[in-house]
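WARN retry 2 of 3 for item q-0093 after timeout on previous attempt; input resubmitted unchanged.
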Amino acid sequence: MLRVFTPVRVALGLAAAAVIAFAVLWFTPSDQYLLLPDKAHPVAPLISVKGGKEPTGPGGIYFVDVLVRKANLLESFFPGIHEGSSLLPAAAINPPGVSESARIQEDQQEMQRSQQIAAAVALTALGYKVTAKPTGVLIEQVAGNAPAAGKLQPTDVVVAVDGKPVRTPAELRALIRLHKPGETVRLSVRRATGLRQVVVKTIADPNDPSLPIIGVIVTQAAQIKLPVKVSIDAGGVGGPSAGLAFALGLMQELGRNVDHGYKVAATGEIGLDGSVSAIGGVEQKTFDARRAKVDVFLVPAGDNAKEARRFAHGLRIVAVQSFAQALHALATLSAKR
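OK item q-0093 returned
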């Protein structure tokens, strides 16, 4: 018996096959990760401080974040299907030897520490007496196959690199970057058993092979005592990059006119000395700011600001290196029309 296939039947068969193929690609996870834009979040509803009140009127301070999830096979083949997305290898998100759950937990801890530092910086700028002493750089995680594995361990505090004192993560990164990948660095490390010297070989950063890293996740080690109770609820968002926004929002909560009537998005890890350090996901965060139709986006100076300008599409980008500079930049914006 001869079976005749009509064009309609063939078309339906091809369509069904396409739907099945699409479903398989969409629901099958890949070994890569997607960075996706989220939305800018106003910080005022998240901050509670004794003696403060939520500001009213136009403007406002916003923090921006990035959605991170595993890409499916379709997204790994066609990452451009999501506007503003970036496709990264798993090692760039979860360092070797660090599980995804451990990375998420550490992100939450980083957020909590960044909030405490942001509060210390903001209250100090307002004239409060804050006890805040940086004590070095705390090692939080060591990648299992990184050069630092077996030499450094969580709870170590790095206090010097090649004999030069280190107080903040930004200083640690800057001193390590004086080297080329493959060279060694000499770290002075404080442990419960005392001070010791550790020599570690650097390797290339997976995200930028020209930069050296040693395969650790770090944060600020500090002793901080605030004079007033401060509570910040970031709603499950992790990482240290909202520090600048929280410091600005806290000042606004305590009556300082920080935004001057503008909608201000801000990103940057803030140090106890008020320095603003580089962060990741700038492309996605710029999309966040654009979606929120903010007037200005404060971004760490250097490569972060250059990248933000690539995706600004008319959004005003202001590069800052410190909290004081951020305040000055906002105070000197032209009068809002």
